[in-house]
């Protein structure tokens, strides 16, 4: 182990440190943090990871230019052999796509009415789907995923599908399978020597690389058809959606040799927005339903607040946020407790440097240990408890700025869709709980355990709930 590195798990060459334990990943990270403090290493395969546990340390690292890049993992280059899009790109390409996307999200109605009304109508459709299962125990329907996909679909292409449309169902299925497969595809990234050990055909078979190529073709077609249609109907003076915005900027920069805008890049950017924005928001919404189902008093208190502010038949808008502090508190407490992205998305050191007094070699992956930060008694009084009240001040006003709260990460790579996600969670929560009540079916319990088998996301386990119509 080179001198000066943070303490932690170094392990063996080629394979790194393989834990021989039945303790879960989160327990192991908590153990490491208790043993080594706020900064520790874990070599996984050939990649050295540094985990950061302290809010200020994460803030410092993720705001420094040498930690803003993503690692070059083949699994993430799934849609295109070249690095494109936003989530995995670096340098000018990342800078241009991030600036473009943030501007689009703002211009397409963040805080204004257009996107809000799309979210409202998707939330109402979901209520209608849930009404169909009132009185009989059933899991949350897949319509929740479709509704969230539809919001992004509208933002990107200006369209919405009906929940029955086979196209959105196929799209959702492929997106889901893709995310599952990406986990497996990462194995050769972490154990690159497998590529020289095993024949290519065997490697492709074990890691399902051919199936992934087929899915890529289908996804690519989804986007390219829409891009072509947008090109045919584009009015440069009236951009309708993100695709129009991109095509206009692509055209304006066509003579600029440094332009990074291209049709191929637009397909990956669109794909990135779906990958980053659908499972995350959908599953956080499911966690909100689960936490409220398991805490009926909290659910009633939130419903009473909603009833006071929103007359029957009206839906919340963003202006209502200040008037619904308890609802905001419930959403934020769920974001903390569920920690959907437990280890964030790794950044990589682009040069040799130091952090927290330790040496960080170029190529080291740097990760915020979000899960342990969200459960640390340094930041949270009784962190195990689900306590929305901790988000309210003595005047009962909601307070956002919380040291130790990093569900969307911080710094230069901070989630580009944070405001959209918060808006969706607010409107879906108010719309659902205004009309419906969620409870545990008689004689059953609802587990808040995490579905193991996905390293990226802490996904809830699918279980039956009882939906009833509120009077
Ligand atoms: C509850 C919902 C969400 C959560 C918990 C979440 C969380 C995160 C996290 C932890 C990151 C990694 C940041 C880093 O690298 O330091 C991220 C990145 C990102 N998110 Fe989100 N996200 C959510 C919803 C969304 C939505 C709705 C969109 C947009 C449609 C979105 C778009 C992105 C993009 C584009 C990135 C990559 C940013 C970059 O690399 O510069 N996210 N998100």
UniProtKB/TrEMBL annotation:
<dbReference type="InterPro" id="IPR036396">
    <property type="entry name" value="Cyt_P450_sf"/>
</dbReference>
<dbReference type="GO" id="GO:0020037">
    <property type="term" value="F:heme binding"/>
</dbReference>
<dbReference type="InterPro" id="IPR001128">
    <property type="entry name" value="Cyt_P450"/>
</dbReference>
<keyword id="KW-0349">Heme</keyword>
<dbReference type="Pfam" id="PF00067">
    <property type="entry name" value="p450"/>
</dbReference>
<protein>
    <recommendedName>
        <fullName>Cytochrome P450</fullName>
    </recommendedName>
</protein>
<dbReference type="GO" id="GO:0005737">
    <property type="term" value="C:cytoplasm"/>
</dbReference>
<keyword id="KW-0503">Monooxygenase</keyword>
<comment type="similarity">
    <text>Belongs to the cytochrome P450 family.</text>
</comment>
<keyword id="KW-0560">Oxidoreductase</keyword>
<feature type="binding site" description="axial binding residue">
    <location>
        <position position="415"/>
    </location>
    <ligand>
        <name>heme</name>
    </ligand>
</feature>
<dbReference type="InterPro" id="IPR002401">
    <property type="entry name" value="Cyt_P450_E_grp-I"/>
</dbReference>
<dbReference type="GO" id="GO:0006082">
    <property type="term" value="P:organic acid metabolic process"/>
</dbReference>
<dbReference type="GO" id="GO:0016712">
    <property type="term" value="F:oxidoreductase activity, acting on paired donors, with incorporation or reduction of molecular oxygen, reduced flavin or flavoprotein as one donor, and incorporation of one atom of oxygen"/>
</dbReference>
<keyword id="KW-0732">Signal</keyword>
<keyword id="KW-0408">Iron</keyword>
<dbReference type="GO" id="GO:0005506">
    <property type="term" value="F:iron ion binding"/>
</dbReference>
<dbReference type="InterPro" id="IPR050182">
    <property type="entry name" value="Cytochrome_P450_fam2"/>
</dbReference>
<dbReference type="GO" id="GO:0006805">
    <property type="term" value="P:xenobiotic metabolic process"/>
</dbReference>
<dbReference type="GO" id="GO:0008395">
    <property type="term" value="F:steroid hydroxylase activity"/>
</dbReference>
<keyword id="KW-0479">Metal-binding</keyword>
<dbReference type="InterPro" id="IPR017972">
    <property type="entry name" value="Cyt_P450_CS"/>
</dbReference>
């Amino acid at each position: 182990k080179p001198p000066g590195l943070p303490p932690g798990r170094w392990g063996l060459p080629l394979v790194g440190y393989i834990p021989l334990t039945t303790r879960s990943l989160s327990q192991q990270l908590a153990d490491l943090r208790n043993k080594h403090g706020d900064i520790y290493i874990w070599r996984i395969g050939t990649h050295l990871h540094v985990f950061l546990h302290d809010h200020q340390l994460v803030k410092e690292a993720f705001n420094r230019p040498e930690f803003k890049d993503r690692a070059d993992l083949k699994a993430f280059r799934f849609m295109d052999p070249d690095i494109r899009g936003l989530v995995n790109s670096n340098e000018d390409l990342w800078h241009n796509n991030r600036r473009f996307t943030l501007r689009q999200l703002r211009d397409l109605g963040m805080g204004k009415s257009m996107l809000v009304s799309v979210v409202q109508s998707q939330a109402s459709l979901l209520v209608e789907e849930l009404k169909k299962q009132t009185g009989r125990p059933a899991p949350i329907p897949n319509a929740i995923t479709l509704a969230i996909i539809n919001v992004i679909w509208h933002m990107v292409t200006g369209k919405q599908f009906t929940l029955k449309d086979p196209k959105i169902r196929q799209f959702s299925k492929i997106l889901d399978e893709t995310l599952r497969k990406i986990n497996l595809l990462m194995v050769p990234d972490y154990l690159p020597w497998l590529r020289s050990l095993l024949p290519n055909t065997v490697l492709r078979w074990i890691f399902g690389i051919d199936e992934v190529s087929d899915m890529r073709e289908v996804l690519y077609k989804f986007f390219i058809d829409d891009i072509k249609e947008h090109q045919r109907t584009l009015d440069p003076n009236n951009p309708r959606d993100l695709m129009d915005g991109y095509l206009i900027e692509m055209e304006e920069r066509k003579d600029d040799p440094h332009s990074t805008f291209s049709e191929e890049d637009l397909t990956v950017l669109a794909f990135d927005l779906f990958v980053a924005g659908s499972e995350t928001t959908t599953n956080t919404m499911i966690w909100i339903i689960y936490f409220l189902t398991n805490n009926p008093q909290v659910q009633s208190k939130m419903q009473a607040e909603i009833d006071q502010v929103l007359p029957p038949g009206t839906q919340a808008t963003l202006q209502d946020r200040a008037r619904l502090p308890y609802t905001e508190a419930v959403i934020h407490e769920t974001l903390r407790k569920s920690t959907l992205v437990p280890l964030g998305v790794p950044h990589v050191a682009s040069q040799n440097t130091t952090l927290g007094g330790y040496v960080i070699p170029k190529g080291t992956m740097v990760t915020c240990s979000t899960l342990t930060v969200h459960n640390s008694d340094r930041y949270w009084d009784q962190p195990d408890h689900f306590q929305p009240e901790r988000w309210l001040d003595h005047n009962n006003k909601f307070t956002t700025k919380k040291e130790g709260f990093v569900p969307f990460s911080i710094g230069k790579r901070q989630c580009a869709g944070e405001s959209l996600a918060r808006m969706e969670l607010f409107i879906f929560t108010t719309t659902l709980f205004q009309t419906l009540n969620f409870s545990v079916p008689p004689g059953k319990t609802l587990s808040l355990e995490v579905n193991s088998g996905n390293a990226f996301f802490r996904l809830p386990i699918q279980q039956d709930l009882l939906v009833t119509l509120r009077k």
